[in-house]
Write a structure and sequence with these properties.
Blueprint lengths: L6 H9 L12 H7 L5 H12 L10 H10 L4 H17 L1 H4 L7 H6 L3 E5 L9 E7 L9 H19 L5 E6 L5 H5 L3 H13 L5 E9 L3 H8 L5 H4 L2 E5 L27 H12 L3 H7 L16 H17 L1
Helix pairs in contact: 3-4, 4-5, 5-10, 10-15
Length: 323
């Protein structure tokens, strides 16, 4: 795809938007040049369909619809479903998708507990790598909802400037994870997280790699597996503690932080700190993005709607937690 882009778009791609800490988002025109299979009439068809769904926001940026349509491999019906889940989940899960100013005290505090960021070099397949790990190991300092909020922000920041890419790979490092961290997980929040990850996240997910796995991973999988579909489970790979060389088959060292992870890049703390500083310059983007909300009072009743799915999940989980 990149080989067919115009010279101006190619220049932007070669710069690596994340690496160069760009602020200006990628444009729809750049996306059309980058993706020969992306059709303007498809995006117009999605916009027309949204007009028949009064609960959905109607002033959504074209770039957002392009991200969603691309993530669904340009399938219109799949894109409609993704649009529904994307906006409904982001509206009805404020603990993950509201107050996304990185300068807020709770987010700055959690950014000193976890490390995260988008890796600038892509894999040979053009995949974008996102890493997430602990930097402080004390469970009492770990706040799951703020950690997920920061992870979602790191992905959205990358999407804002990079736009569509052939795929995404997540690196989750288990170093320092204890039973105390698992006990701080909320079943209800986990369910919402996996709903968004599997049905609303506008990326082509290619792999989830768990680094430095320990026996505790069995307990973690026992907790999260009920929320994971087979397709997602098939993307999960485990790499044992002390030897992550098996990940090189999927992610080369040039896309892995250095230090204890022994990649070719600067250590994860350095990459994380640079990413946090860059995200401080994207406050306006996050504030604007938060305005695109569903209005449940205008929703046409539908038993299969994402809102119904979230409500049903919440009720069943409340019963489960009581039991």
């Amino acid at each position: 795809m990149e080989g067919q882009a115009s010279s101006s778009t190619s220049c932007r791609l070669e710069q690596f938007a994340v690496r160069d800490h760009l602020i200006k988002g990628i444009t729809a025109d750049e996306e059309y040049k980058k993706n020969p299979d992306l059709k303007k009439e498809d995006i117009q068809a999605l916009r027309q369909w949204m007009l028949t769904q009064p609960h959905l926001p109607q002033d959504v940026p074209e770039e957002t619809l392009i991200l969603i349509h691309h993530s669904c491999y340009f399938d219109l019906e799949a894109s409609k479903s993704c649009i529904e889940v994307y906006f409904t989940t982001r509206t009805n899960t404020p603990e993950f998708f509201s107050k996304r100013d990185i300068n807020r005290p709770e987010l700055l505090a959690q950014s000193k507990v976890v490390e995260f960021g988008a890796i600038a070099p892509k894999t040979p397949q053009g995949y974008q790598v996102i890493f997430h790990r602990l930097q402080q190991f004390e469970p009492s300092k770990y706040v799951f909802q703020d950690s997920v909020r920061l992870l979602a922000m790191s992905i959205d920041a990358c999407l804002h400037v990079e736009g569509t890419v052939p795929g995404y790979i997540f690196l989750f490092d288990m170093a320092g994870v204890r039973l105390g961290h698992v006990l701080r997980l909320s079943v209800g929040q986990l369910s919402k997280f996996f709903l968004y990850l599997q049905e609303g996240l506008p990326v082509r997910l290619k792999g989830i790699h768990i680094l430095n796995t320990r026996p505790l991973i069995d307990k973690i999988m026992f907790v999260v597996k009920p929320f994971m579909k087979k397709d997602l489970l098939s993307l999960v790979h485990f790499h044992p503690e002390g030897d992550i060389s098996s990940v090189y088959e999927f992610v080369p060292p040039k896309c892995i932080p250095g230090g204890d992870l022994k990649g070719d890049l600067p250590d994860s703390k350095t990459l994380h700190n640079e990413y946090v500083e860059w995200m401080k310059n994207l406050v306006e983007f996050f504030l604007q993005d938060e305005k695109y909300q569903v209005d449940e009072s205008k929703r046409v009743k539908n038993k299969k709607s994402a809102a119904k799915q979230l409500e049903k999940t919440q009720v069943s989980l409340q019963k489960l937690e009581l039991d």
